Amino acid sequence: MNSFFSTVSVSKRLGRIIVTGLAAAWLAGCASTNYPAAPAAAATPDYNYIVGPGDNLNIIVWRNPELSMSVPVRPDGKLSTPLVDELVVQGKTSIEIARDVEKALSKLVRDPVVTVIVTGFIGPYSEQIRVVGEAAKPQALPYKQKMTLLDVMIAVGGLTDFADGNGASITRAAEGDKRYSVRLKDLIKRGDISANVEMKPGDVLIIPQGWF
């Protein structure tokens, strides 16, 4: 008889420990969302696309079709053309690259006029939007002006069945890694467009796993 009551007592104590542990875990999960809500507007009107490794550039040299060509940006952030060797282009705009090519060609071509058009967009790592955690297809995305949270979620295929969508957050590199909370579940599952916010270059979207 005493053994029976001892077993019941132990079971109760274990039950209290489990419940306490689950409550602590739940509170810890809630604590991770104690960040200010992400501002609805984040894009800046003076944004210019920055070239990165993997981008494709169409270089047009006026009146010199033999010097015009389409070239990829190498993994080291440089490009090479027949008359231009080892030109660093990573982290520059297409206009800045055009001026650099003109400067390099001016040693061999009289008054070169160059236009650079970006035809493949990846961008430098510092500008990409990264999605980690419980997204269907976690990945890095090239930033586009006025890109929103909804655009990002469509690109990554939405949430997994285990995602805590309303516990997600954005780490904003442009603001010293400041963190903001976002409501992905409300946005995707409930169609609450008020939960849609603009992204900034370099944002990291973190989607945690739900406890239940």
What is the structure about, briefly put?
The chain is α+β, with helices and mostly antiparallel strands and 212 residues long. It has four helices and ten strands, in the order αββββαβββαββαβ.
Number of strands: 10
SSE string, helices as H and strands as E: HEEEEHEEEHEEHE
Helix content: 25-40%
The low-pLDDT segments are: 1-12, 17-32
Distance between the termini: 38 Å
Quickly count the domains: 3
Into which percentage range does the β-strand content fall?
15-25%
Q: Tell me about the biggest sheet? A: 5 strands, mixed
Task: Using the coordinates shown, work out and report the CATH topology of the largest domain.
Answer: Outer membrane lipoprotein wza fold like
What is the CA-atom radius of gyration, in angstroms? Answer: 26 Å
The SS-based structural class is: alpha+beta
Question: What is the CATH level 1 assignment of the largest domain?
Answer: Alpha Beta
By CATH's scheme, which homologous superfamily of the largest domain applies?
Outer membrane lipoprotein wza domain like
CATH architecture assignment name of the largest domain: Roll
The gross shape turns out to be elongated
Describe this structure in words.
The chain is an alpha+beta fold. The chain has 4 helices and 10 strands. The chain has helices at residues 2-31, 94-105, 149-155, 184-188, and strands at residues 56-61, 69-72, 78-81, 84-88, 114-120, 129-133, 139-141, 169-172, 178-181, 204-207. The relative contact order is 0.16. Residues 1-12 and 17-32 have low confidence and may be disordered.
